[in-house]
Amino acid sequence: MSAQAFTTLSGPAIPMAEDNIDTDIIFPARFLLLTNKAGLGKYAFHDRRYTADGAEVPDYVMNREGWREAPFIVAGANFGSGSSREQAVWAIHGAGVRCVIAPGFGEIFHANCQRNGILPITLPAEQMADVMAAAQAGTGFAVDLETQTLTMGNAAAPIHFDIAPGAKLALLNGWDETAVVLNQYGADITAFERAQRATQPWLYPEDTAA
Amino acid sequence: MTAQTLYEKLWNSHVVTQLGDGEALLYIDRHLVHEVSSPQAFVAMREAGRPLRRPGTHYAVVDHAVPTRSPRADGVRLGTIADAQAAAQIAELEANVAEFAVPYAQLDGPEQGIVHVIGPESGFTLPGTTIVCGDSHTTTHGAFGALAFGIGASEQGTVMAAQSLRQKPARTMRIHLTGTRHPFVFAKDIALAIIGQIGAHGAAGHAVEFTGEVIATMSMAERMTLCNMMIEAGSRVGLIAPDDTTFAYIKGRRLAPKGAQWDQAVAYWRSLASDPGATYDRTVTIDVSALAPQVSWGTTPDQTLPIDGVVPDPAQIADATAARQAEKAIAYMGLTAGQSLDSIAITHAFIGSCTNGRIEDLRAAAGIAYGRKVASGVRAIVVPGSAATRDLAEAEGLDKIFVEAGFEWRLAGCSMCVAMNDDRLAPGERCASTSNRNFEGRQGPGGRTHLMSPAMAAASAISGHIADVRKFLA
Ligand code: SF4
């Protein structure tokens, strides 16, 4: 499950000025019966993007000229809250989104983004108002992960954002985290298990199983 | 040594190695697996040619996609599932657990049920452990003093192969519950009241620990309800220190430690409670004495009010964002500002889910249903959280009380909590529900959900509208 590397990105930003956009809105539960990761882009925000008979809702932002397949989303607080479904991330990735900017995220969604080459940027509420206004105006966004900067339009002063160093490295390199953990820390994990087995033997049913 | 909170003890005892900048590689003791979130993780294992590091530390079940009815008289579901996608998803899980030798609570078997109900029931959930699952309501298991949190499918793949995850510690938040509650105010009401007060992201970034006299008197079922709902306040972790109630619940369960190991385990578990003087980043104190039963009116779980309240008027809400969200929710929910909550007519009642599908919940609902009838025009279903809960309820005669009153008595599963099996709402239908999420479309596209306790849902089913269960107190 190696992710794509993330370095720089530019393009328009889809404005979603609403708090608590949950993963049921991003990827309705009934589509969870699909077991693929690929091809989920058409289900992103499905029940808002399409009517019950499958026609596009013309005034929904993702269906409007200028924001179709835009690579950024700018959202309200607590974006991606609710269910842990990674399909929410695979779906917006499939719809072309590579960066989401919000004042806060559902924590599992946030971790899922970083595992799949999507950069989640958290900005303080004071800065979000300008960012949302720029998105609504159709301004072009540009982000550089290496320098941790976000630029809107021709603004002279880019906005700085924070990211955990481990997540930054993983995104920049498109690392498969499982491989990294196994290759770099295998011996540490074995040592941990040896110590835990000695003090909490009940956690090792494999030692007593017939 | 400095005084530590329960969270800090659980965290520190699972650090494999520090990764710098506050991050650590955290050892994962237990992994619960269900059919919906796991397929892609097994694919990753297969594609990379990786074995499961410790197969015995995983436990799999089918719950989300399974129907809760069977066309067969003996209740067997396997082989009868009409929905081809659901059948395929279940078959895929069965193939995966066979290939990777993962212990499995099979459909129609005695331990099948909702993942967060069967973990505790089987003794798989133990204090002092780290537990993950590809499911956000993994918070439930924190009721045992376990560090339990939901993860995505990619992370599941890492746990399967490496039994560990890169994590950043959360800040800590203490929710201290004081006072004595009304007999018809349950853990669900307290959870909804907390979320209403602190907001749907009020605990984001924090590991919540519940303390106080209210917790001390709660059953494990109520503690699980409370921790289960903390994800609806934005927290990935809800915790309660293990005590004698916890140990009494665990003792003798199939996977619980036995003999000398039991004594050794209990001695260790007693050491997990937060030290006197330990500090939290935040503390919220709530007196439950004046609390009324709660009901959600909107489409986020913090859009919740006491049952004697009315649908809010967006024009009266000062905060512009909150006003806009209220307006949107009222429109989706088909309500009118100022309408009394206890006058809202319902079409469905759902008693079940990992929040309120345990035996104590069924007893509370049956207590209201006893000798009464479901209102005409209401479809009411009772879905036990597990096969074991269902068996116990039948032994107590609860099924007969429900059926007599006009409720449908179902087989175990997630059912109408999530619109991915046969039990779902049609657009515009309205449900009094004991589940945990009132999101748009959660129970079916266009469906309308009101969250409440099992006693309240039963009272509403009987009344035909959302009802104050306190009026049923004989
Ligand atoms: S009962 Fe609902 S919340 Fe619980 S695991 Fe099932 S779908 Fe998720």
Automatic annotation (TrEMBL), chain A:
Transmembrane segment boundaries? none
EC numbers on record: 4.2.1.33
The pathway this protein participates in, as annotated, is: Amino-acid biosynthesis; L-leucine biosynthesis; L-leucine from 3-methyl-2-oxobutanoate: step 2/4
Is Signal given among the entry's keywords?
no
Q: Which residues form the Aconitase A/isopropylmalate dehydratase small subunit swivel domain?
A: 4-125
Molecular function, one GO term: 3-isopropylmalate dehydratase activity
List the InterPro entries hit by this protein, alphabetically.
3-IsopropMal_deHydase_ssu, Aconitase/3IPM_dehydase_swvl, AconitaseA/IPMdHydase_ssu_swvl, IPMI_Swivel, LeuD
Report whether Lyase shows up as a keyword of the record.
yes
| Catalytic activity of the protein | (2R,3S)-3-isopropylmalate = (2S)-2-isopropylmalate
Q: Which residues form a coiled coil?
A: none
Q: Provide this UniProt record's keywords sorted from A to Z.
A: Amino-acid biosynthesis, Branched-chain amino acid biosynthesis, Leucine biosynthesis, Lyase
Task: Name the family the entry cites.
Answer: Belongs to the LeuD family. LeuD type 1 subfamily.
Function, as annotated? Catalyzes the isomerization between 2-isopropylmalate and 3-isopropylmalate, via the formation of 2-isopropylmaleate.
Describe the subunit structure: Heterodimer of LeuC and LeuD.
Name used for this protein in its record: 3-isopropylmalate dehydratase
Taxonomic source organism? Novosphingobium ovatum
The organism's lineage is:
Bacteria, Pseudomonadati, Pseudomonadota, Alphaproteobacteria, Sphingomonadales
Give the gene that encodes this protein.
Answer: leuD
Automatic annotation (TrEMBL), chain B:
Q: Read off the InterPro entries from this record.
A: 3-IsopropMal_deHydase_lsu (IPR004430), Acnase/IPM_dHydase_lsu_aba_1/3 (IPR015931), Acoase/IPM_deHydtase_lsu_aba (IPR001030), Aconitase_4Fe-4S_BS (IPR018136), Aconitase_4Fe-4S_dom (IPR036008), IPM_dehydratase_rel_enz (IPR050067), IPMI_cat (IPR033941)
What keywords sit in the KW lines?
Answer: 4Fe-4S, Amino-acid biosynthesis, Branched-chain amino acid biosynthesis, Iron, Iron-sulfur, Leucine biosynthesis, Lyase, Metal-binding
The protein's annotated catalytic reaction(s) are: (2R,3S)-3-isopropylmalate = (2S)-2-isopropylmalate
Could you say which EC number(s) this protein's record lists?
4.2.1.33
The residues that hold [4Fe-4S] cluster are: C354, C414, C417
UniProt cofactor note:
Binds 1 [4Fe-4S] cluster per subunit.
Show where the Aconitase/3-isopropylmalate dehydratase large subunit alpha/beta/alpha domain sits.
8-464
A GO molecular function assigned to this protein is: 3-isopropylmalate dehydratase activity
Q: Does the keyword Iron apply?
A: yes
Superkingdom of origin: Bacteria
Instruction: Tell me which cofactor or cofactors this protein depends on.
Output: [4Fe-4S] cluster
Is tRNA-binding there in the keyword field?
no
Which pathway does the UniProt entry assign to this protein?
A: Amino-acid biosynthesis; L-leucine biosynthesis; L-leucine from 3-methyl-2-oxobutanoate: step 2/4
Q: Which PANTHER family match?
A: 3-ISOPROPYLMALATE DEHYDRATASE (PTHR43822:SF9), HOMOACONITASE, MITOCHONDRIAL-RELATED (PTHR43822)
The free-text function statement in the UniProt record for this protein reads: Catalyzes the isomerization between 2-isopropylmalate and 3-isopropylmalate, via the formation of 2-isopropylmaleate.
Q: Which NCBIfam families match?
A: leuC, PRK05478.1, PRK12466.1
Q: Subunit notes for this chain?
A: Heterodimer of LeuC and LeuD.
In the record, the note on similarity to other proteins reads: Belongs to the aconitase/IPM isomerase family. LeuC type 1 subfamily.
Q: What is this protein called?
A: 3-isopropylmalate dehydratase large subunit
Q: Which organism is it from?
A: Novosphingobium ovatum
Q: What is the lineage of its organism?
A: Bacteria, Pseudomonadati, Pseudomonadota, Alphaproteobacteria, Sphingomonadales
Quote the gene name from the UniProt entry: leuC
